[in-house]
Amino acid sequence: MTIAAPPVPHYVPAPRASEELEYADLAVIDLAKFGTPEGKAKLAAEVRAAMKDKGFFYVINHGLTQEQTDRVFDIANIPLAQVSDEEKMKYDGKMQQTGSYQGYKPRQYWQIDNGVRDQIEHYNMNKNLQRKDHPEALRPYLGQLHEFIKHNHFNILHPLLKLLALGMGIQEDIFIPFHNFDARGETFLRFMKYYPRTEDDEQKTKNVWLKGHTDFGSVSILWSQPVAALQLICPDGKWRYVSHIPNALVINAGDALEFLTAGFYRATIHRVVQPPPSQCGHERLGVFYFAMPDDDLALRPLPIAGKWPVDQRRFADEDAPTMEEYRKGRIVAYGNSETKKDGEGKVEVQMIGKVLVRHYN
Ligand SMILES: O=C(O)CCC(=O)C(=O)O
Ligand SMILES: [Fe+2]
């Protein structure tokens, strides 16, 4: 990936948190080992173990240098910091009408809790950058973003999908045909910023910035950044933080992978909370590649499902939604007030077709 012209203002993230936080102990997958058969086999076993244990892991040696990654964060800040409110409105993605993440999600679009709305803004781009126009300030960088998207797709996502398949003891290419770069699908790049909130909002939401959820796609690739706020539910039921490893990726599976593998790989619940005092008042800029199967794929267990020992399907095969139906349902439903609290009020449930979806606080 080129990191040359045009120049872009450097984004300076917050310093690392100085507190001793309770961090989840996550495996580190060294993608440099993918190139040899022995290395690949070893990584497949590590990925499988990591997915079975916490459902989250890090990836290092993904092919971009720290300098290149810094450049991506610099570009990521452009649509959030350099575009006027007026122009942002023009590129509003209107997610709850379209069921698609393309364009801006404005702040305060979602309900969090007790009448408080979110302070998160994002700009989302389909893997095919030509599906939509982009704000003017971003246009000089589209060539580099195209390269970055392809890097995520072919050099990170595809190897990970192969490791996940090998980890199940099945042929490595099984997930590849329906993660087709050129097919109609919603795999997208997101630049996301969390803005500090008022004390009143913090209290009313018990410091939750983004409610507990599972991602709805297959594999989520999060480019590690220093503001400590992402937490996952560990096997002992406790929320723990994801620590920052410079120039690493944080990987987790989403619902689509869980459905396709009949629960062999589970989608892990995670959330975002207020950062610790040493990072209080700082913005939090994130870069993500959210991958999902092509729109037309029905999310039922792969035909080979009978061959592996886990079967935790959550709905009958004939009730399986397509990826398009499921992502539309999830995007439209997220953060609006129509979720119902369960008996204890901790979990909110929603039906997307025949699929029961939970949100956690
Ligand atoms: O901001 C983060 O670290 C996680 C965001 C997230 O979970 C999501 O957008 O689905
Ligand atoms: Fe998520």
Automatic annotation (TrEMBL):
Q: Work out whether the entry's keyword set contains Cell inner membrane.
A: no
Looking up SUPFAM superfamilies in the UniProt record yields: Clavaminate synthase-like
Q: Which UniProt keywords apply?
A: Iron, Metal-binding, Oxidoreductase
Q: Which InterPro entries match?
A: DIOX_N (IPR026992), IPNS-like_FE2OG_OXY (IPR044861), IPNS-like_sf (IPR027443), Iron_ascorbate_oxido_reductase (IPR050231), Oxoglu/Fe-dep_dioxygenase_dom (IPR005123)
A GO molecular function held by the record = oxidoreductase activity
UniProt xrefs under PROSITE patterns: FE2OG_OXY
What Pfam families does the database record attribute to this sequence?
A: 2OG-FeII_Oxy (PF03171), DIOX_N (PF14226)
Give start and end of each Fe2OG dioxygenase domain: 185-293
Family the entry assigns:
Belongs to the iron/ascorbate-dependent oxidoreductase family.
Name of the molecule in the record: Fe2OG dioxygenase domain-containing protein
Say which species the protein is native to: Antrodiella citrinella
